[in-house]
Amino acid sequence: DLTSCSLTYCTYCAKNHQGKEDDSDVSCRKRKVLHLVSQWTSLYKDWLHEDEHLKQFLKTIYRNVLDDVYEYPILEKDLKEFQKILGMHRRHTVDEYSPHRKNKTFFHQFSVKENWLQHRGTMNETEEIFCRVYITEHSYVSVKAQVSTSAQEILKIVAEKIQYPEEELALVTVTFSGEKHELQPNDLAISKSFESSSRMFVYRKDLTDTLNPFAENEELQQRSVRILGINTWDLALELTNFDWSLFNAIHEQELIYFTFSRQGSAENTENLSLLLQRCNEVQLWVATEILLCSQLCKRVQLVKKFIKIAAHCKAQRNLNSFFAIVMGLNTASVSRLSQTWEKIPGKFKKLFTELESLTDPSLNHKAYRDAFKKMKSPKIPFMPLLLKDVTFIHEGNKTFLDNLVNFEKLHMIADTVRSLRHCRNNQFGNEVPSKEHHELKPYVHHLHVIDNQQALFELSHRIEPRV
């Protein structure tokens, strides 16, 4: 009950009056209290979810231990046990509580309650990640696969994506020193590339050379543009379903880790990093698809297609892919294609201008913010802008003022982070794309992109040389 909580807290915080206790006695008393609270929490954890006062008590005890662990290092072991019971994944060290590192450690204390609201597990063999399989030095296929996926499965995905016979290809890891190692069909490709800190490449079977799908030849001229045969609403819907699965997996605290701890925090921002990577790859994918299309009439169709997909993403309240597609169409190597843009019908140009206006950065992205605010949940925000907001609050305001916590700053950050919760109030419906496009999911899940601006410009000047 509350009386017991108060007595326990007072016992923990009792001062050393008139020198009657030495440091060892104080630390022993604090350890006993922490041990008691840990046992009690472990026994009644499920019930504690229902009581705000008890959660506040645990939060207060936890913060006091964080303050004391630097003065009494012996508490560190007990603190780790307490963190395990509370479901906290961060492992603190004594050095982190040095007064010189207050700013870095403050966000670990953000809220015990938040850790109970959402659980973020560690990555295992069944979880999916993005891995890059390079076709050339500057282009790759982004493959969403489980860590336990075999080399044969990945090779099949890539071969289908680049429209090349699988039996003529080999999957190879290449170290930074240039050493090659061919992966066998049953090898765990992703694990192998991580172990050797190398890149995965697709080579010709004899390992003499990588492929060059961008060479100026008849094969490129006849390259089928699969996207033109896919319904635009279905494609946008699959993009939205994919983005939602990434967005819905983001733990609210990932935004805090990303902002407060820019270095060495990759393991704490895995899901957020995936969505940011996806946004960047969709932008590159738009430019890649257009610039690999050497036939003018098909290129015009492609631009129209992407404008419609962007409009559908907006209608489906997926602002992350919406921004990525519009930015892809505005990439310098695409926007310079005057022959292509001249042939775009007026109604499509007008639609694109309207869509562009939402990405206008003036007045702190007012157009986007107003439109997004009016959209009902569920909805997917443009994550880079949300991160910019949190970073702006963090860097523009001190965390400590005269050795006191600047709670006004923390309230502003908390309000911004909680906007994720509002976006995810409801789940997206179970609407699925038309069944006739059975290849739609792998097409959207595994994007073929060129990630080098120079290579994109070379393709751009090849299909429409400078006059």
TrEMBL record:
The keyword Ribonucleoprotein does not apply. One of its GO terms (cellular component) is plasma membrane. It comes from the Eukaryota. GO terms for biological process: Ras protein signal transduction. InterPro entries: Ras-like_GEF (IPR008937), Ras_G-nucl-exch_fac_CS (IPR019804), Ras_GEF_dom_sf (IPR023578), RASGEF_cat_dom (IPR001895), RASGEF_cat_dom_sf (IPR036964), Ubiquitin-like_domsf (IPR029071). Transmembrane segments: none annotated. Residues 231-466 form the Ras-GEF domain. Coiled coil: none annotated. Keywords: Guanine-nucleotide releasing factor. Pfam families: RasGEF (PF00617). Signal peptide: none annotated. One of its GO terms (molecular function) is guanyl-nucleotide exchange factor activity. PANTHER family: GUANINE NUCLEOTIDE EXCHANGE FACTOR, RAP GUANINE NUCLEOTIDE EXCHANGE FACTOR 5. This is Rap guanine nucleotide exchange factor 5. It comes from Cariama cristata (Red-legged seriema). The lineage of its organism: Eukaryota, Metazoa, Chordata, Craniata, Vertebrata.
